[in-house]
Structures are given as structure tokens and as C-alpha cells.
Amino acid sequence: MTAQAGVASPAPPPSRRHRARSPIIPPGPQPAALTAVLAGLLAVTAPLGEAAAVPAVVVLQLVTAAGWFRLNGMWPARQGIALAFASGLAVDAALLLAPDDRLPEALIGVLGAWFMAVLVLQLRHRGSADERLDALTATAASSVLTVLAGGHLAAADLSGDAVAATAMGVGAAALLRSVPVPFLSFLLALGAAAGAGVAAGRVTELAGGDALAFALAGGVAALIGLRVASYDFPSRFVHFTAGVALPLTAAAPVAYTLVRALL
Length: 263
Fold this sequence. Notes:
By secondary structure, the chain is mainly alpha-helical. The protein has one domain (32-262). The protein has 13 helices and no strands. The protein has helices at 2-6, 14-19, 29-45, 54-71, 78-97, 103-122, 129-149, 151-158, 160-177, 182-203, 208-230, 236-239, 242-262. The termini are far apart.
């Protein structure tokens, strides 16, 4: 009895020790720098027209599709990532071909068709019920986000300058949010987005107030995207996929909505 009492209890498995830590891990400065680069590319190309912004949007959609799967603990998931990315390419083509007054219908139509494709493919899944449900929800959510990222193209078709101002706000906010001072970095990020709006008012044809509104909206969307991307355990793949893409992806529907409301 004494010998048994003196035996140390077995250590918890590595996964349990890992999960005991806080799940909120900010992506950090390197993904923020990549977000700023991608946002800068979108800000430069969007004023040139919808077609010119396609390369930046396609890169964003690829990183969004991969990042969401990794954020859900599903890596690798090549089939799901490929399917979600293909939904982004499909919506890009639909937005380029659709008339200006039918852009929302084009986006919703592609999304509905892709939901049907996701459901059909999941019927062939041979895993357990839990595995099928996880794969279905992750693929569907990834497809939604990837399609929504195409909203930058829809907004650029109406006002490339508005997309540029929004992207400038996203890039500035992402960079300042990575400063390792929790509450202060939040205020710095909003201040940086406002500064980006002032700059956008000078380099674009937007009125000062409109440019500020688009940039601030982009900054707030970036903070939301970064918060979502932070909800995971330390992972290089998370930080360089979801941490890069979600700030700019979250800003796409915001940019389109504001374009319709303000311009």
C-alpha cells in the first residue's frame, strides 16, 4: 500500500496539457504584415476596375479557405479546401459576368449551388457520424467565407476607391493590433484605421467623410476577424492562414454594404 501510494500519478496526455492553456492566442506581427501587404495590393488594384482586383481577391480566397479549415482543427483537408476555393472562383466569375444590379443575386446563386455540392459530397463520406458532421459544417462555413471574400469584387464594380479605403483601414488596423499591449493596441488599431481614412480621402476621389467611414469600417472588421483567428491554440498554420485572411475577408461584406448605402 505504501509503495503504491508513493508512486507518482501518470502525467496527463500532451493534448490535455495543451488544451489547459488559454485558447486566445493573437496571430502576431508576421500575419499582420502579410495582411497589410494583401490589403495594399487590393487598395492599389481596386481603383483600376473589378477585373484588376481579381488576383488579390483570388489570393485572399485561397488563404481564407485553407485558414478556416485549420482554425477548426482540420488539417490537412485538401478536398474541403479545394471545394471551398472553387466556390470562390465560381463567385468571382459570376460577379464579373453579372450586371451591376444583379450582383447580390449572383453571389447568392453560387452559394446555394455550392451548398448542394457540399451536401452531395458529404453523402459519400465514409467516416463516423461525428466526422461527417464536422466535415459538413467546416466545408459549408469555409465556402460561405470564401464566397463572401468575393464581395470585394462586387464593391469594386461599384466603387474601386471605396474598396481601396476599406483595405487601407484593414491593413493599418491589423498592423497596430499586433502591438503586444492588449487594450492599447485596440485603440491604436482604431486610430490607425482613422488615419488610413484621412490618407484615403487624399489619394482617392472619395469625400473625406466617406473615406473615413470606409476605413473605420474596415478597421472594425479587421479587429473582428483577428479575434476569430485568435481563438485557437498556438499553430503556425493558423497564424499564417486564418490570421492573414480573416481581417480582410470580414471587411468584404462591410465594404459592399457601405458602398450601396453611402455612394
